[in-house]
Design a protein that fits this description.
The chain has about 150 residues and is an all-alpha fold. The chain is built from six helices and no strands.
């Protein structure tokens, strides 16, 4: 089993995964930037707009976010690998569609109940998952283009 996993991982395009990770990480930073959705998201979370300082260890927050995004890129590449086996003409748009479907079907759908049970509202959920959907679509476009 471990041999199969190692062989499978060796078949993935790690440069495409790295570029997809960086592109999505940058897109996420822009999405939640001070001039984009961060202020709206912050208010929707019920936090004071006069104090938009994030608390916590920023190294842990950004490091964990980066690790999660890298894992997402590997997952997108893995799904694309298996989908592309049956389509020799698989390309960027196909990859983007895979990313979009993963974003809507997994990221958005699974996080809705988490947000609602945590006492958040649909606005918080929409801002957060829109970023996930965009990032997964970007990853899919890049990885699909490099098939």
């Amino acid at each position: 089993m471990i041999d199969w996993i190692l062989m499978f991982l060796a078949e993935l395009n790690w440069l495409a995964i790295a570029v997809a990770f960086v592109a999505a990480f940058i897109a996420g930073a822009i999405w939640f930037g001070p001039k984009t959705f961060f202020p709206v998201w912050w208010r929707a979370m019920g936090k004071d707009p006069a104090n938009m300082e994030v608390t916590g260890n920023m190294g842990v927050i950004f490091g964990s976010t980066a690790v999660a995004a890298f894992v997402e890129a590997i997952a997108v590449a893995s799904v694309i690998h298996f989908v592309a086996l049956s389509n020799p003409n698989f390309g960027a748009l196909d990859g983007g569609l895979v990313g979009l479907l993963l974003g809507i079907g997994l990221a958005a759908a699974s996080s809705l109940s988490h947000r609602l049970f945590a006492g958040q509202n649909f606005k918080v959920w929409a801002i957060e998952v829109s970023s996930d959907v965009v990032n997964l679509t970007i990853m899919g476009l890049i990885i699909g283009a490099w098939r």
